[in-house]
Amino acid sequence: MLSMWIPVFNKYFSDEVRKKDINAARTDVKNAPEKGSKIEGKTKNNLEEKVVNKRSIASIFFGGFGECKNRMEPIVLVHGGAGNVRDSRVPPKVAAVKVAAIRGYEVLERGGSAVDAVEEAVRTMEDDECMNSGHGSVLNSEGKVEMDSSIMNGATMDAGCVAVVRDIAHPVSLARMVMEKTPYVMLAGEGAMGFAKEMDVEMLPPGALVTDDAQKALEIYKQTGGVFYEIGETETVGEVGTVGAVALDFNGHIAAATSTGGLNGKHPGRVGDSPIIGSGTYARDDVGAVSATGHGETISKWCLAHSIITAMQRGADPQTATETSLNQMTDKLKETAGAICISKEGKVGIGMTTKRMSWAYRKGDELVYGIDKGKQEVENVSAGSNTCSMG
Questions:
Q1: Are the CB atoms for 255 and 246 separated by under 8 Å?
Q2: Is pLDDT larger for residue 29 or for residue 49?
Q3: pTM for the whole thing?
Q4: DSSP state of 287
Q5: Are 138 and 240 within 8 A, CB to CB?
Q6: What is the rounded CA–CA span in Å between residue 251 and residue 111?
Q7: Does the annotation count 242 as an active-site position?
Q8: What are the residues facing 377 on neighbouring strands?
Q9: What is d(CA 185, CA 171) in angstroms, rounded to the nearest whole number?
Q10: Looking at residue 224, what is its pLDDT?
Q11: Which of 3, 188, 342, 389 is such that its CA lies 20 to 30 A from the CA of 63?
């Protein structure tokens, strides 16, 4: 009887707590003393303590009732987009991916699936205006938000994708509905919007997702004669980035998800790699999962996510597979990208040919994160009372 109320409590509290987590993290980061691009001292510790301790009421009271499989050690790995991130934008982007990794991992602690975890992690970043997805999406040449997203279940290889969707806070959840409630892999444009209405997805007022930073970036795009600047490649506006997540759950199942607002100043209807299975997103239980970010057209031509998975099938570890595929793509096609990857054993791969890519993962009591090539930081976070014992 009690179990029937768990999804209700989780749904009710998750969105509100997610937004509070983001706001708390962003406020603390804004007020934190900085040295270079790092937050130091007590303020940094307080930031993470705030984020970790803001668990949903449903998790606290009901998480312990889930079945504990004790088969695999779960992990959630996320990215917040690859690109030329200015130093001033490093703290909020790192804070955002840390929150997302923690939120996704909490889903696994409560007994959720890998698909549940990547959806939650991506939804968290879709709520953050410093990310190029959901509420932080860039604008097309007409000043409108058009978003793409995808999700893939590694256990079944089912996938759902949406492209050119508007006025929806969480495109990743609509992509999951396509995966689970239709016989299709992708819906786009008016067809996707019609499906969203059929599913009673909440529609935001037109223009609700348009931010001041996105409008300024579009102005710069037009002033420069149509140069495809991402937000942050000038000193005027802050950087944002496509978001993604990969996860391994207690049962050994794997999933991946990616979400984006696309390319600043793009032609209406343009679709990048993020909603394309094998390019921006891919997951197979018997190999691993990948989410990519960067120059969408190049990632699509290279089929980057599938390229990384293929390298792993041939025996490469996740880190080698990720770095090699990215370097080969950039050498051949001259554009840059980044990617995150986990193997079926829970090993990680994190690579970029861009200047920076924000990322974070939670595994057990360890939160690992970074944004610069070859650099990472590690924090210990307290496991929730509902965490399954690793035995």
A1: yes
A2: 29
A3: 0.81
A4: T
A5: yes
A6: 10
A7: yes
A8: 369
A9: 14
A10: 78
A11: 342
Cα–Cα distance list, 304 to 54, 167, 247, 252, 369 (Å) = 36, 29, 18, 24, 23
Amino acid found at 46 = N
At 203, is the secondary structure helix, strand, or coil? coil
Which tokens belong to 171? 């495109």
At residue 281, the 3 state secondary structure works out as strand
Q: What average pLDDT is seen over the chain?
A: 83
Helix (H, G, I), strand (E, B) or coil at 107: helix
Q: For 186-202, what is each residue's pLDDT tens digit?
A: 999 999 999 999 999 99
Output the pLDDT for position 108.
97
Token pair belonging to 251: 């049962």
Active-site residue identified among 124, 242, 298, 322: 242
Alpha helices in the chain (DSSP H): 6-31, 41-53, 57-62, 90-109, 114-126, 171-181, 189-198, 212-223, 296-302, 304-313, 318-333
Determine the Cα–Cα distance for residues 355 and 310; give it in Å rounded to an integer.
Answer: 26
How far apart are alpha carbons 20 and 17 in whole angstroms? 5
